[in-house]
């Protein structure tokens, strides 16, 4: 239990964190990696370079300070982060290291303003928050290992098939190298993929949404090639997967994780909205709905640049065509002349609320969306403007959590 004195001190630092939060987390990662470079094996280096990880951590620290009297309010955030930690392989022994350098970063950035009282209060709070993470993650590790087909850490999978889905997206069908059973997953979840790229000092770990159906003897991930390895998130890894990982290659994989899940207990209509490679978890959700709840009303909306970059079109249309309660709608931001001639899309430009109301019909539904952050911000604003209940709005960030409001 956090002392009342510590609570009061931390609440007094909220305005400071609002101003200096990102500077503190930037300094934190500098200190962390200087002292423990081996931890670069766990972190996405590109997200570090772009500042996405620093911003996400700053938001999490700020949320903890704001809710310090009722930390249960941030438990959903804790669980989301814990899923990623379990997938990456974060262990209890990492938390004291993080605490040391987080407090050091606060002192470095704030200087004399970071008094012993302030540092002591944050040390007390960090200890409690770290214990929560360790406890939640310990249970997740146990579940991942003990579930049917589960395993500990990383398990080698063989690329059984490699399928080009569009100009920029390729699917990898992964089968366990030991030919044993694999863990089930819930549509919307992801797996961790570990790569050692020749010439790179550190291991690369990426988390990719599963785009296939639960219950298969394989996992399917669908990866967008991101060019510009030095300045684009995942460019280094996605390019390596596209160019060098072939059928027969072995890849270490962590068990499925993630709290972005389709609610199959909800019988109401569901609207799946995606932009770009954000359609991967949506395809998994669509396939599951088709197999388990074909009577449910389903609206599938996908935005792509044009037809050549539109993955899974035939797969989605095949599913929808066999189910009268399902519909699919395409938005192209830059349709080609061939797209126009073929009438290959339903809307040109960008998603907006008037059009969404036409195709979704009712706001009394479960809404799930994923895609680039600006796309997600647009969708989130539209749903809120429409009056969709907060509990019916579900989304997933690829990479560190961003801000939608």
UniProtKB/TrEMBL annotation:
Marked site (Influences the redox potential of the prosthetic heme and FAD groups) residue numbers: 84, 396
Please indicate if the UniProt record lists Heme as a keyword. Answer: yes
Concerning Gene3D superfamilies, the annotation shows: Globins, Nucleotide-binding domain of ferredoxin-NADP reductase (FNR) module, Translation factors
* Entry keyword annotation includes Chloroplast: no
- Catalyzed reactions: 2 nitric oxide + NADPH + 2 O2 = 2 nitrate + NADP(+) + H(+); 2 nitric oxide + NADH + 2 O2 = 2 nitrate + NAD(+) + H(+)
Name the EC number(s).
Answer: 1.14.12.17
One Pfam family, short name please? NAD_binding_1
Q: Which residues form the active site?
A: 95 (charge relay system), 137 (charge relay system)
List of residues binding NADP(+): 276-281
Positions bound to FAD: 190, 206-209, 397-400
How many cofactor units bind, and how? Answer: Binds 1 FAD per subunit. Binds 1 heme b (iron(II)-protoporphyrin IX) group per subunit.
Q: Which cofactor does it need?
A: FAD; heme b
Question: What UniProt keywords are attached to this protein's entry?
Answer: Detoxification, FAD, Flavoprotein, Heme, Iron, Metal-binding, NAD, NADP, Oxidoreductase, Oxygen transport, Transport
Q: Return one GO MF term.
A: nitric oxide dioxygenase NAD(P)H activity
Residues noted as binding heme b in the record, renumbered to the chain: 85
Q: Which GO terms describe its biological process?
A: cellular response to nitrosative stress; nitric oxide catabolic process; response to toxic substance
Q: Which family does it belong to?
A: Belongs to the globin family. Two-domain flavohemoproteins subfamily. In the C-terminal section; belongs to the flavoprotein pyridine nucleotide cytochrome reductase family.
State the domain notes: Consists of two distinct domains; an N-terminal heme-containing oxygen-binding domain and a C-terminal reductase domain with binding sites for FAD and NAD(P)H.
What functional role does this protein have? Is involved in NO detoxification in an aerobic process, termed nitric oxide dioxygenase (NOD) reaction that utilizes O(2) and NAD(P)H to convert NO to nitrate, which protects the bacterium from various noxious nitrogen compounds. Therefore, plays a central role in the inducible response to nitrosative stress.
List the protein's name. Answer: Flavohemoprotein
Q: Which organism is it from?
A: Paenibacillus rhizovicinus
């Amino acid at each position: 239990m956090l002392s009342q004195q510590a609570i009061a001190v931390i609440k007094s630092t909220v305005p400071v964190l609002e101003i200096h939060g990102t500077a503190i987390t930037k300094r934190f990662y500098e200190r962390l990696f200087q002292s423990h470079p081996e931890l670069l094996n766990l972190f996405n280096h590109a997200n570090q370079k772009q500042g996405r990880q620093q911003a996400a951590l700053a938001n999490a620290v700020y949320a903890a300070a704001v809710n310090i009297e009722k930390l249960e309010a941030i438990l959903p955030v804790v669980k989301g982060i814990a899923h990623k930690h379990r997938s990456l392989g974060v262990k209890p022994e990492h938390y004291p290291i993080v605490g040391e350098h987080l407090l050091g970063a606060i002192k470095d950035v704030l200087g004399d303003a970071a008094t012993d009282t302030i540092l002591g209060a944050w040390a007390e709070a960090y200890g409690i928050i770290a214990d929560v993470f360790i406890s939640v993650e310990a249970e997740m590790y146990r579940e991942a290992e003990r579930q049917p087909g589960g395993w500990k850490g990383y398990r080698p999978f063989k690329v059984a098939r490699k399928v080009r889905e569009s100009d920029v997206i390729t699917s990898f069908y992964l089968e366990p190298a030991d030919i044993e059973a694999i863990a089930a997953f819930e549509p919307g979840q992801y797996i961790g993929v570990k790569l050692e790229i020749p010439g790179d000092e550190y291991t690369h770990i990426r988390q990719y949404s599963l785009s296939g159906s639960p219950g298969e003897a394989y996992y399917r991930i669908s990866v967008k090639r991101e060019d510009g390895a030095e300045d684009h998130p995942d460019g280094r890894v996605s390019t390596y997967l596209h160019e060098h990982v072939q059928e027969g290659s072995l890849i270490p994989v962590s068990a499925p994780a993630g709290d972005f899940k389709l609610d199959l207990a909800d019988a109401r209509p569901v609207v799946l909205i995606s932009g770009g490679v954000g359609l991967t978890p949506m395809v998994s959700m669509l396939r599951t709905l088709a197999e388990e709840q074909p009577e449910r009303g389903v609206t599938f909306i996908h935005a792509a640049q044009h037809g050549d970059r539109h993955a899974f079109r035939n797969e989605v249309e095949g599913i929808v065509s066999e189910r009268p309660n399902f519909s699919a709608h395409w938005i192209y931001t830059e349709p080609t002349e061939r797209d126009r001639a073929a009438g290959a899309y339903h809307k040109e430009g960008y998603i907006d609320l008037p059009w969404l109301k036409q195709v979704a019909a009712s706001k009394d539904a479960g809404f799930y969306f994923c895609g680039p952050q600006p796309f997600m911000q647009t969708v989130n604003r539209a749903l809120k403007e429409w009056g969709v209940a907060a509990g019916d709005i579900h989304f997933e960030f690829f990479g560190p959590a961003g801000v939608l409001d």
